[in-house]
Amino acid sequence: MRIAAPTALLLLLQAVSGAATPDRDGDTQQLPLIAGPSRGPQQQQQRQPNVVFILTDDQDVHLSSLDYMPLVKKHLLDQGTNFKKHYATTAVCCPSRVTLWTGKFAHNTNVTDVMPPYGGYPKFLSQGYNDNYFPVWLQEAGYNTYYTGKLFNAHTVENYNSPPPGGFTGSDFLLDPHTYDYLNSTFQRNGQEPRSYEGQYSTDILAEKAYGLLDEAVDAGKPFFLVAAPIAPHANVVMKGSPNGSNDIHSVYFTEPVPAERHKHLFKDEKVPRTANFNPEKPSGANWIRELPQQNSTNVEYNDHFYRQRLRALQAVDELVEGLVERLEKHGLLEDTYVVYSSDNGFHIGQHRLQPGKSCGYEEDVNVPLIVRGPGVAAGYVADGVTTTHADLAPTFFDLLDIPARADFDGSAIPVEKEKFEEVKLAGRRREHAGIEYWGFAMGEGIYNRNPLEHNTYKAIRLSGLGYNLYYSVWCNNEHELYDMNTDPGQLHNLLSSSSTIQSTPSLAAGHPADKVAARLDALLLVLKTCAAETCQQPWRQIHPDGSVESLEDALEPRYDTYYEDKHAARVEYSYCANGFIEDAEGPTWQANGRPFGYGYEELRAGARWEDWV
């Protein structure tokens, strides 16, 4: 049974939030979205839409967390569209969030880690994005912008104002070193000094700040974009080092998430779903993952507890969603507002013998929620069959708000209306790929085996089309993986493993051998690993400029066998493992200036062109 926060606590939180709180007795006057005279019903339908975006931290799809959020179901899933094949392009917080707010892959932003020197807020600043990213562009288009919660890692009590994040009309940011400390958070409102909320629950504080910012947005009488970014269900983290982003990983103490007091008794019998890839008897995966020992019963019991704590921590987020929807309805703005729900990356607990965490390219870590409710969006619809990524969110928001797309977006707008989505799917103009990339290390986030694991750098493709459902990756030690996820959804049987127990060459994608499929996917990955703008949106056009190939299904036609089997062709391979995007480590690349698949590494370095080859 759900227990609402006591009224006295809510009033206290309102008082400490520092946010404006207009009349909350239900008597708030409905204000027009754009300042001006009163509007009749027909005029109100023509108002510019708003967006409220709830962005959680580390929320899974495949561990069923959404099944435990009845208010998200009531207000978003039942009233909106659930995009089933939505992917984070980098399975860790800061690079993923920078991709989300720029529409560019991490290999183009060069923000590839959570902390300096390769990532975090200082890296975001040094790359010149603070005056050239999503909230700035929205303000230039006439929108007010509001944000509360976690923005980027290494955004701290020391650097929060040097300079402050650009582009926000109103803000109340969580700051390191207390961003992930559920009962000892620090927020910083607009240009004011940071304020500590020791002993108070982080998501509840954030909720009241979000409600206050929503009231401010309504009072301003302009179209608005509001982000509420709670830390749940991220692990609880205590940083013992410097807050300036130079923490040694061993000075950062991770434990399971902390729920609000009113939710700590829930789900006492729940366990991590016992899928085939949960703590398997035989090792799986590649690189360092294949060397992991099977977890003992004590370890598994703790990880079940970690799982329950995640579900409990999400209950306050569930209440936040309802609170925002109810306030939008009270202001008369719900029908004019897109409410969007997503997470920066996914999460694993026990799959492939992994301790709680993310950072891998497997489905649990990269397939994330995306739910949209709003004008013209179908209620209760499950959108499947078109692959989308976080690089598409900025273009999608632009499209929803009728703002012209930027030429440098790596992603493209998602068709959120059911009719448009079905049209794209049925007309064969579907996009079937998601490019996935990662640099650096991985680590467990519970109390077991937290040693950072190096050489977790990889490039990957998640690809789903008519008759095939595949994952292909190349690690920085040049191990390859290929999984047919129609028959192996847990990604347990690497079809390219030299130690595979499969005796005969497996058939994938309408009976094609694994090596044949891998050759096509390697060419596609060679394009995607350094793509930009249109190259990312239509990578097959780089391999086949005549337009004859627009999908893996096309590329698998026998007439292309000789081309893809060329022994002198450039392949995806690393020169060495690096913890960030270092050009010398990346190996052969395909660049938009005409460097083609079909050349060896030296020819690529020399800049040979497509027309010279054909």
Descriptive overview:
With 614 residues, the protein is of the alpha/beta class. It has 19 helices and 20 strands. Strands 7-6-5-4-8-1-11-12-2-13 form a ten-stranded mixed sheet, sandwiched between helices. The longest helix has 34 residues, at 297-330. The relative contact order is 0.13. This is Arylsulfatase. It comes from Hypoxylon rubiginosum.
What is the CA-based Rg, rounded?
24 Å
Quick one: overall form? globular
Uncertain stretches of 5 or more adjacent residues: 1-45, 592-614
**Total helix count?**
19
Measured distance between first and last alpha carbons: 67 Å
What percentage of amino acids are in beta strands?
15-25%
* Overall SS class: alpha/beta
Protein name: Arylsulfatase
Q: Can you lay out the helices and strands and say which pair or pack?
A:
Layout: H1 7-17, H2 41-44, E1 50-56, H3 70-77, E2 81-83, E3 86-87, H4 93-102, H5 106-109, H6 120-126, H7 134-140, E4 144-149, E5 170-174, E6 184-189, E7 195-198, H8 202-220, E8 224-229, E9 236-239, E10 252-255, H9 297-330, E11 337-343, H10 363-366, E12 370-373, E13 381-383, E14 388-389, H11 393-400, H12 418-426, E15 433-438, E16 458-465, E17 468-475, E18 480-484, E19 507-508, E20 512-513, H13 514-528, H14 534-537, H15 540-543, H16 552-555, H17 561-564, H18 601-606, H19 610-613
Parallel strand pairs: 1-8, 1-11, 2-13, 3-14, 4-5, 4-8
Antiparallel strand pairs: 2-12, 5-6, 6-7, 9-10, 11-12, 15-16, 16-17, 17-18, 19-20
Protein name: Arylsulfatase
Organism: Hypoxylon rubiginosum
